[in-house]
Amino acid sequence: MANNKSDINITTVNINGLSPHSRMAAVKYIHDNNIDICAFTESKVSADDNRLQAIPGYRAFAKLCSNSTLSGGTALLIKDNFAATRMTILESNKIDIVWILANITSIGHVLIGSVYIRPNSPQEMAEFDRSLKLA
User: Fold this and answer.
1) d(Cα 100, Cα 113) in Å, to the nearest integer?
2) What is the DSSP letter of 91?
């Protein structure tokens, strides 16, 4: 739990689909625990989805599901008081990955990523490795 100005709270949640119920529970959790940055995997969001954009006090950076079955997907939420820029140059169309460069006041610039790799997918793992090497 963050208790001084140099602490930040980061969490990751495999949300397994951002249903209205899971969205409500996630919003309550991040607000109740003063989460600064939250990574959601298996968000299962599509291009016309705004459920992540409407979380008060946070900006969302989402990678939409890269397949037609709407499985996977990933997103990063970061509090509005931190500057953040999406780093699409590090991302790939072959996997669900999102990168941001965040300016955390007490720390400086930090590169943060979130990825969803489907089970038993060596091709996606190799693409993730490629992205990490770029970072």
Assistant:
1) 6
2) -
